[in-house]
Amino acid sequence: MEAENLKVNQVIEKHHREKKELIAILQDIQAEYNYLPQESLKLVAKSLRVPLIDIIGLATFYRAFSLKRRGKHLVTACLGTACHVRGAPMILDEFKRKLNIQVGETTKDNLFTLETVNCLGACALGPIAVIDNNYFGQMKIRKVDKLIKKFSSDKRSRSE
Amino acid sequence: MVTLKINGLEIKTEQGWTVLDAAKFYGLEIPTLCYHEGLSPYGGCRLCLVEIGEGQRAKLVSSCTYPVEEGLVVRTDTKRVIEARRMMIELMLSIAPNSKKVQDLASKFGVTQVRFKIRNEECILCGLCVRMCAEQMDGRAIGFQHRGYRRKISTPFDIRSEECRLCGGCIYICPACQLRCQGPQPDTAICNACLTMEPTCLDHYEELQCWMYDAGRCGTCVREKPEKTQDIKQ
Amino acid sequence: MKEKIKIKKLEKIRSEISRERKINKTCITICGGTGCHAYGCIKVAQTFVDEIKKQNLQEIAEVRTTGCHGFCERGPIVVIQPDGIFYQRIQLKDIKEVISETIINKKIIERLLYIDLKTEEKIIYENQVPFYKKQKRIIFGNNGFIDPTEIKDYLAVNGYSALASVLESMTPQEVIEEIKKSGLRGRGGAGFHTGLKWEITSKSPGEIKYIVCNCDEGDPGAYMDRSLLEGNPHSVIEGMIIGAYAIGAKEGFIYVRDEYPLAVENITIAIEQAREYNLLGKNILGTNFSFDIFISKGAGAFVSGEESALLACIEGKIGIPKQRPPYPAQRGLWGKPTNINNVETWANVPIIINKGASWYSQIGTKGSKGTKIFSLVGKINNTGLVEVPMGMTLREIIFDIGGGIPGEREFKAVQTGGPSGGCIPKEMIDLPIDYESLTQAGSMMGSGGMIVMDENTCMVDVAKYFLNFLRDESCGKCLSCREGTQRMWEIVTDISEGKGKKGDIELLEALAEATRDASMCGLGQTAANPVLSTIRYFRDEFEIHIKEKKCPAGVCINLIHYSISKEFCTGCMACLKVCPQNAISGELKELHVIDQTKCIKCGACFETCKFDAIKIE
Known about the structure:
The complex is a heterotrimer. Chain A has two domains: 2-61, no CATH class; 73-152, 3-Layer(aba) Sandwich (Glutaredoxin), CATH 3.40.30. Helices cover 47% and strands 11% of the residues of chain A. In chain A, helix 1 crosses helix 3 (38-48) and helix 2 runs antiparallel to helix 3. Chain A has seven helices and four strands; from the N terminus they run H-H-H-H-E-H-H-E-E-E-H. By secondary structure, chain A is α+β, with helices and mostly antiparallel strands. Chain B is built from six helices and seven strands; from the N terminus they run ββαβββαααββαα. The longest helix of chain B has 17 residues, at 79-95. By secondary structure, chain C is α/β, with parallel strands linked by helices. The longest helix of chain C is centred in the C-terminal third of the chain and has 21 residues, at 528-548. Chains in contact: A-B, A-C, B-C. The interface between A and B is medium-sized, with 17 and 17 residues.
């Protein structure tokens, strides 16, 4: 807890405790922990002198932030219009079935979190799924299972 | 001084007033729900809509937030305004059918049907409780979270807030909490009784069915820790 | 400390760079846009670099990873300059051959060339490829020559010469007049006259003013701004510096959405390099004019791309739109007059200054001048980013440039303007593209997304898709928008599931009107468009869903069923193996059958069958 508080304080100092840097501060904390721990939000509220309820309002408003711990691997299915007409919903349904979770949830073993995004801008490769910043284009329903298995056994962490 | 026209009437107001301020000052009636004199205007319920401008460029704006301008032309009851207002009331009814305030509005403006699935959620997200808590009670214990259809009002992390002083201001001001209609017709009907009888419930019940005595039902401020352990541990 | 660069020195540097590059060196340009990243272009580029080094060919050839070339369908793309030889779908194993055959022996490798879909002719040169031929790439074209992380490349294509001439010989008022004369309109969607906006902001009282570049680009399917900011960031910076000079701003902000990390990276590098060259900061190029740019990142919300919401985000507050008046041009960032323009709008400024407003206003139509970059995606053969003069027809864009619909299917409609826009049906395919014509047709220009749809796209499903997007992205303040989009979505979902009833279409129309009239900001006011335009042109499709409980396009899951055709089934058992529900039965070489009680219509069998035997009806 101490170490975490120290890190959060460092982030706040890096942005000079400026209120206008609030979103950037939260982005840094999210990048560090893969979610926004409750204690970190309370600390930011105190240091920046912004009511905690306003920070929560802001954090829940944006897609980039998660107040819940995320799984080891982040699976993002693109639901942009171009991907949609190319069958993205069916790919998403297959991910939901195979991982047995809904969008925004994490598998019980904490391995996968499933999210969606509205257009990554790689429309020629639609439908697309991104797992840990790796792009998998021209997705087919039968590819889903193989991908999940590949990442299940992968010992690497999310950022590689 | 600013000169503008409302419903053909030329009026003068101070700089910095809103169109609603001007209308009230001159006795022109514009329905409101999320507006309260003691709180900052929000413009969320869209009931106080008025039509401004002329011809092709005419548009509807919420009078509680729109500032008066020199030469502004305002009309409070055009076809567009009335149809939009009715739809807003219909939408509110579909969320909070038991709210006397909304029922009154329905009777008054002739909304006689609700074509949407009734949700019975009561909270119409008018934000009065949030503004009451922040501005009048200096609590800041509750606020808006998420956006779109997932938007809700709650305390930080959905647990009992350290800032909440149990003042009850939120319940006091909530239009859905005020005088729940218990009255002669079933939930799904809009009976029109409220316009003529006030309060409805005293004719049928021994006491006021006011939710002030049943805090905790919507009671955002007094919610206990959830029973399920959530993954919020560090 | 290095001497600060002044205007004349910049010219000298530019001539030096040009002189260096005139040497007969082949330049292997590789498309480095995000789309091509997904194709593995980084590895391609690295392999080229390694091979050139290994074979000691640095004197005759260099490798340059450039901005997006636009032809995303064909990535990875390699164009050999100065000839302009166009190789597409390059694989790692092709690289050695490209070097030995094309670079050293000057021979063309036929199998890497683009083949014209109609004539089956092999095309050698980039400017002959049908996709590029009809385009007018005055803004986007430079992407192919520039490494976005190298300011010298931008200088070599005459970059920052517009800025130099502005600072040397034009007053701020003259710049504004030139932009007004050009007829440039905002490329973010609303199409407000840029020159007029600049004038209003510059005339607003106060010493402190700001300018902002909006790179939120929230429309799904649109990625032009991303590719511009990634591929040619200096063109945007130059436009902004000129704008700041004209308006009187000392600080500018570029707001980039969270989902564009490469764009953030490249613009950050570009800004630092511009500062080194004295193009940003104090006393730019030795003049009295000082201006600097800062980057602000979004955090993932469509509505934050709206003007007033965006300003709130830059201020560190929650990105929810505000009631106007006052407008940003009068009271914007921190209460000061602020001018906000889209990425593409800023990128148009240098060329207007360089070539003149008269030249610029010759391109396009009476009301809409210049070119527009569109992202042509969906059911189209040549997916990519296209830049065309305003006034070109949809037919030309979709068929001549886009190469038509894959699989020889029928064109059904094209969606423009994103979630604020609408669908244009095939009957209107000769519609010339400009701001007014699109609005009259019930759609709008928007930021430039163009989603092409064919006979297998269900319009009820499209309406449902956009309503789902809008109900999620609405900020939630206005009852009309929040509940309006939610209830419209519920009704359209019921229709798509066969639960539609008489009166639903009329209810949708009434609700759509109320949502449009009663909402405060652009999101709510245009939320009705996708629904109203699909009902306007495809009412019968809605009615079939409601009355007959059928989905003619074969999309709405509750209304279709999968079956195996006797004619085409070869009994190969491939579908059996992929069915997650074990709903298919059949022996080898015998007709297979789908058990309707088990089938969840996931589509796996349809995807797998090579004989077209799976029918959806």
